[in-house]
Amino acid sequence: MEKAAAPFRSVLNPKPPIIVSCRGKDGKDNALVVVYACNCSFDPPMVMVGVTPERHSHRLIKESGCFVVNLVPESMKAVFDYVGSHSGRDGDKLAACGAKVADGAVVAAPILVDCPVNIECKVVDSIRTGSHEMFVGKIEYVHADKNLMNADGKIDFSGIDFLKL
Q1: DSSP letters for 30-54
Q2: DSSP 3-state assignment of 55?
Q3: Do 160 and 74 meet the contact criterion of CB atoms below 8 Å apart?
Q4: Average pLDDT over residues 115-125
Q5: What is the pLDDT of residues 27-76, one digit of tens each?
Q6: Which option is the CATH number for 18-159: 3.30.1130.10, 1.10.150.20, 3.30.1950.10, 2.30.110.10?
Protein backbone atom coordinates (compact mmCIF):
# COMPACT_ATOMS: atom_id res chain seq x y z
CA MET A 1 0.00 0.00 0.00
CA GLU A 2 1.38 3.38 -0.99
CA LYS A 3 1.64 6.06 1.74
CA ALA A 4 1.67 9.85 1.53
CA ALA A 5 2.81 12.51 3.96
CA ALA A 6 -0.05 13.63 6.22
CA PRO A 7 -0.40 16.79 8.32
CA PHE A 8 0.82 16.57 11.92
CA ARG A 9 -2.15 18.32 13.53
CA SER A 10 -4.62 16.08 15.42
CA VAL A 11 -3.41 12.80 13.95
CA LEU A 12 -4.73 10.92 16.99
CA ASN A 13 -8.23 12.30 16.71
CA PRO A 14 -9.94 10.89 19.83
CA LYS A 15 -13.34 9.31 19.73
CA PRO A 16 -16.02 9.90 20.77
CA PRO A 17 -16.60 13.62 20.14
CA ILE A 18 -17.05 15.57 23.35
CA ILE A 19 -18.32 18.87 24.62
CA VAL A 20 -16.79 20.17 27.84
CA SER A 21 -19.12 22.25 29.97
CA CYS A 22 -18.11 24.59 32.75
CA ARG A 23 -19.39 27.43 34.88
CA GLY A 24 -17.79 30.75 35.75
CA LYS A 25 -17.56 32.15 39.25
CA ASP A 26 -20.37 34.51 38.18
CA GLY A 27 -22.68 31.50 37.71
CA LYS A 28 -22.76 31.71 33.90
CA ASP A 29 -22.52 28.40 32.06
CA ASN A 30 -20.44 27.76 28.98
CA ALA A 31 -19.35 24.86 26.81
CA LEU A 32 -16.84 24.16 24.08
CA VAL A 33 -15.91 21.37 21.71
CA VAL A 34 -12.68 19.69 22.80
CA VAL A 35 -10.62 17.62 20.40
CA TYR A 36 -7.80 16.68 22.79
CA ALA A 37 -9.22 14.38 25.46
CA CYS A 38 -8.41 10.99 26.92
CA ASN A 39 -8.42 8.74 29.95
CA CYS A 40 -5.21 9.26 31.89
CA SER A 41 -5.57 7.19 35.08
CA PHE A 42 -7.49 4.12 36.13
CA ASP A 43 -6.86 4.51 39.88
CA PRO A 44 -7.94 7.10 40.77
CA PRO A 45 -10.14 7.49 37.70
CA MET A 46 -9.08 10.59 35.77
CA VAL A 47 -9.47 12.13 32.35
CA MET A 48 -7.56 14.88 30.61
CA VAL A 49 -8.92 17.61 28.33
CA GLY A 50 -6.91 20.13 26.34
CA VAL A 51 -8.06 23.74 26.06
CA THR A 52 -6.16 26.62 24.46
CA PRO A 53 -5.66 29.60 26.80
CA GLU A 54 -7.38 31.86 24.26
CA ARG A 55 -10.71 30.08 24.77
CA HIS A 56 -13.26 31.69 27.07
CA SER A 57 -13.78 28.36 28.87
CA HIS A 58 -10.08 28.14 29.75
CA ARG A 59 -10.44 30.93 32.32
CA LEU A 60 -13.68 29.45 33.66
CA ILE A 61 -12.08 26.05 34.25
CA LYS A 62 -9.00 27.63 35.85
CA GLU A 63 -11.15 29.71 38.22
CA SER A 64 -13.72 27.06 39.13
CA GLY A 65 -11.41 24.05 39.21
CA CYS A 66 -13.96 21.78 37.56
CA PHE A 67 -15.53 20.72 34.27
CA VAL A 68 -17.89 18.13 32.79
CA VAL A 69 -17.10 15.89 29.82
CA ASN A 70 -20.27 15.25 27.79
CA LEU A 71 -20.26 12.45 25.20
CA VAL A 72 -22.07 13.66 22.09
CA PRO A 73 -24.65 11.61 20.18
CA GLU A 74 -25.52 12.16 16.53
CA SER A 75 -28.81 13.78 17.62
CA MET A 76 -26.82 16.70 19.10
CA LYS A 77 -24.94 17.63 15.93
CA ALA A 78 -26.48 21.12 15.82
CA VAL A 79 -25.48 21.82 19.44
CA PHE A 80 -21.98 20.46 18.79
CA ASP A 81 -21.58 22.63 15.69
CA TYR A 82 -22.87 25.73 17.47
CA VAL A 83 -20.75 25.51 20.61
CA GLY A 84 -17.75 24.65 18.45
CA SER A 85 -18.10 27.76 16.30
CA HIS A 86 -19.18 30.50 18.75
CA SER A 87 -17.53 32.08 21.79
CA GLY A 88 -19.08 32.33 25.22
CA ARG A 89 -17.59 35.83 25.40
CA ASP A 90 -20.33 36.91 22.99
CA GLY A 91 -23.30 35.47 24.86
CA ASP A 92 -24.92 32.38 26.33
CA LYS A 93 -24.11 29.69 23.78
CA LEU A 94 -26.05 26.97 25.54
CA ALA A 95 -29.26 29.00 25.58
CA ALA A 96 -28.73 30.19 22.00
CA CYS A 97 -28.51 26.63 20.65
CA GLY A 98 -31.27 25.26 22.87
CA ALA A 99 -29.12 22.83 24.83
CA LYS A 100 -30.86 21.39 27.89
CA VAL A 101 -28.69 21.71 30.99
CA ALA A 102 -28.89 20.65 34.61
CA ASP A 103 -26.60 21.18 37.57
CA GLY A 104 -23.90 18.61 38.16
CA ALA A 105 -24.43 16.30 41.13
CA VAL A 106 -20.99 17.04 42.64
CA VAL A 107 -19.17 19.78 40.73
CA ALA A 108 -20.27 23.36 40.10
CA ALA A 109 -20.73 22.93 36.35
CA PRO A 110 -23.66 22.00 34.12
CA ILE A 111 -24.30 18.67 32.47
CA LEU A 112 -25.80 18.53 28.98
CA VAL A 113 -28.96 16.51 29.64
CA ASP A 114 -29.33 15.14 26.10
CA CYS A 115 -25.82 13.66 26.11
CA PRO A 116 -26.00 9.99 27.10
CA VAL A 117 -22.96 10.17 29.41
CA ASN A 118 -21.73 13.11 31.50
CA ILE A 119 -18.49 12.88 33.48
CA GLU A 120 -18.09 15.38 36.34
CA CYS A 121 -14.46 16.21 37.11
CA LYS A 122 -12.44 18.26 39.59
CA VAL A 123 -9.15 19.63 38.28
CA VAL A 124 -6.22 18.07 40.12
CA ASP A 125 -3.41 19.19 37.83
CA SER A 126 -2.64 20.82 34.52
CA ILE A 127 0.28 21.05 32.15
CA ARG A 128 1.03 23.34 29.21
CA THR A 129 1.90 21.21 26.21
CA GLY A 130 2.47 23.95 23.66
CA SER A 131 -0.76 25.25 22.18
CA HIS A 132 -3.00 23.67 24.86
CA GLU A 133 -3.26 23.42 28.61
CA MET A 134 -4.15 19.86 29.53
CA PHE A 135 -6.48 19.85 32.53
CA VAL A 136 -6.33 16.62 34.49
CA GLY A 137 -9.71 15.98 36.07
CA LYS A 138 -10.42 13.44 38.80
CA ILE A 139 -13.75 11.84 38.01
CA GLU A 140 -16.19 12.65 40.80
CA TYR A 141 -19.48 11.44 39.32
CA VAL A 142 -20.71 9.81 36.11
CA HIS A 143 -24.27 10.21 34.79
CA ALA A 144 -25.41 7.63 32.24
CA ASP A 145 -28.75 7.09 30.55
CA LYS A 146 -30.38 4.12 32.31
CA ASN A 147 -30.94 2.25 29.04
CA LEU A 148 -27.13 2.12 28.58
CA MET A 149 -26.47 0.31 31.85
CA ASN A 150 -25.86 -3.44 31.58
CA ALA A 151 -26.62 -6.09 34.23
CA ASP A 152 -23.19 -5.53 35.82
CA GLY A 153 -23.90 -1.81 36.25
CA LYS A 154 -21.42 -0.81 33.53
CA ILE A 155 -22.06 1.49 30.59
CA ASP A 156 -22.68 -0.32 27.31
CA PHE A 157 -21.14 2.18 24.93
CA SER A 158 -22.35 0.19 21.91
CA GLY A 159 -25.82 1.59 22.64
CA ILE A 160 -24.72 5.15 21.87
CA ASP A 161 -25.07 6.55 18.35
CA PHE A 162 -22.00 8.79 18.61
CA LEU A 163 -21.68 11.87 16.45
CA LYS A 164 -19.77 11.09 13.27
CA LEU A 165 -17.25 13.73 12.30
Answers
A1: EEEEES-EEEEETTTTEEEEEE-TT
A2: coil
A3: no
A4: 98
A5: 999 999 999 999 999 999 999 999 999 999 999 999 999 999 999 999 99
A6: 2.30.110.10
